Amino acid sequence: MSGDQAKKPLLLTNVKPIAFGSDTAEGAIDILVNADGRIAEIGSSLSVSQDVTRIDGKGAFISPGWVDLHVHIWHGGTDISIRPSECGVERGVTTLVDAGSAGEANFHGFREYIIEPSRERIKAFLNLGSIGLVACNRVAELRDMRDIDLDRILEVYAENSEHIVGIKVRASHVITGSWGVTPVKLGKKIAKILKVPMMVHVGEPPALYDEVLEILGPGDVVTHCFNGKAGSSIMEDEDLFNLAERCASEGIRLDIGHGGASFSFKVAEAAIARGLLPFSISTDLHGHSMNFPVWDLATTMSKLLSVGMPFDKVVEAVTHAPASVIKLSMENGLAVGSQAEFTIFDLVDSHIEATDSNGDVSVLNKLFEPRYAVMGADAFAASRYVPRARKLLRHSHGYSYR
After folding, report:
1. Which residues are annotated as a binding site for Zn(2+)?
2. For the chain, which residues make up each domain, given as ranges?
3. Which residues are noted in the entry as Zn(2+) 1-binding (predicted)?
4. pTM of the complete model
């Protein structure tokens, strides 16, 4: 079933709710969605006389629609982005958040050609640099103040406040050279003016991960939180770990942002063993990370499960947690009258070898397998991405197959 077919009511049967709140009934239920996309009835073994589209969940889980908080989908406008269709509903993801692919100079194109035509809900962090990631890591977006137009950022936000959810800064010497944390400070000032969160990419220092955390405040996001880069790993520096732990307790959001160069099994496992869990799980999917090592959101979720993150926390980290960052309400998501937006998925036994951004391999004994993404009365068949085997290359944004 796809959204291109004529609308009629949708009946989901034999699905097990998760992440809808403690008062949600346990066990399998049926959900009837009206043609207008609103939930009409919830119960056990619903009897429906009208003509409906029926989907048998076969005992699969049903959660609020998955949110990927860090993707790059300004396809055609940057040299690194993929299409929303490659990482959206067909992968079980109903909301995609682009993490700074567009800056103030080209956001209008991103809105017109990507956001508006897409089936998925798309939100965006606006890059502090005017050009965004037009030529990612080949032409840096934050070399000095000539690359930033504060007035234009404020104007573009005012024109697109329903789409822009925050400011994005990449704090790494690959982008900022010797500029250090100055872009982070500028980004934080703008975020304060606009009353939106800032997402900061931490990578090769400078800037130091420690310095970035000291600038951020409650509600801000540090992405690539469990990277394994020299000088930027929270597990190679006890002071940094303690700082990250304190900041997380104060409301700074630690986001996975796997990507081609920014997730380490060893760092994640050690941090989780000590009780430091990521706030959100995201992919940092782009043209150099999709085939290797990320694949998709479901596989990234499976990786976190494999290193000790509890099942319910993994689901929380792709639903309510990232939704709170972008102010997307998931309250009463399973209630009569609410707009239907779900991901139907299984957790299956497996023996798949997966790789992190450092080339370390882990066997995934359990896999999240998306079956459907439901948006209103439309149900889109979903599955994990199966990567194409190609030659492994090393580049400035991590490893990739080409």
Report:
1. 70, 72, 168, 201, 224, 284
2. 10-63+333-350+364-381, 66-326
3. 70, 72, 168, 284
4. 0.94
